[in-house]
Amino acid sequence: MEEYISLKVELRGRRENSILDLEGLEYTEAENRIFRFINMVFRGERFVNLRIEGDDGKAKIIREFERINYAEARERIIEFLKFIYKVEESLPEVEESWLTRYDIENLSQKDKLLLLLKHNHPNEWVRS
What we know:
It is a single chain. By secondary structure, this protein is α+β, with helices and mostly antiparallel strands. The protein has four helices and four strands; from the N terminus they run ββαββααα. A four-stranded antiparallel β-sheet has the order 2-1-3-4, covered by helices on one side. Helix 1 runs antiparallel to helix 2 (70-84). The protein starts with 5 loop residues before the first strand and ends with a helix.
């Protein structure tokens, strides 16, 4: 059973203040509505102050960010929504038996990177 979550997004720019209240929406619907809202606000603003609140009935969480651009706002909102909705990112299944076919110790960094990409390893693994 999914929890009842209420959200409030407030964007304060130089020209205007805008507030969006959402209640009882599923993750994807909340995300879509919030992004339509910030798209509208960023048509007239380059930077805003963002305040986002989430309440799941047990706790109220408030995050505030000052003078952020559109890309940062989207990123912060996605992080917040994943946290409040308890969305877990799962890594794709990786077959590790392919490692035995290569002499890993004698491969260059470039060859190792290409092998990781070829065998569908997540970007987080490739970066490390």
